């Protein structure tokens, strides 16, 4: 079904901006054929080349937590966390700790997903819905939002 993808720029009330998190299926991958992404901007180039004349997304990547990866022979499989039955992800960072970003075609999006911060013993008092994607370090992929999210991740592996 059609879904709306949003990306709002930073503002005084939302210091980091706000964008949806999405699951994509990408032809060029280095580990898993699906990725979790935070949408930061939506771009529409004006070009004569039909390949470039389409909407693109500027995104920042999340990786599956290594605690979720199981090796079965030569195959790497991601399993949900045993207690929550939800997949665990964290931001993919460069060596300088900056988030890894990329530009991907809009048509690679498979669905919008919800990430829930993995809280420790305490929630930082400054964390709210406008900054939780930037302050938290690990996130659960909310499979209670809809059952298709849980099964999509399994089927894209």
Give an overview of the whole structure.
This protein is mostly beta strands and 157 residues long. It is 8% helix and 36% strand. It contains 2 helices and 12 strands, in the order βββββββββββαβα. Strands 3, 4, 5, 8, 9, 10, 11 and 12 form an 8-stranded antiparallel β-sheet that branches. The chain is globular and about 50 Å long. The two termini are 22 Å apart.
- Estimated helix fraction: under 10%
> How would you sum up the global shape?
globular
Order of helices and strands: EEEEEEEEEEEHEH
Unreliable residue stretches: 29-33
Query: Which structural class should the secondary elements be placed in?
Result: mainly beta
In total, the number of strands is 12
Q: Mean pLDDT, nearest integer?
A: 81
What amount of the residues lies in strands?
A: 35-45%
| Main β-sheet description | 8 strands, antiparallel
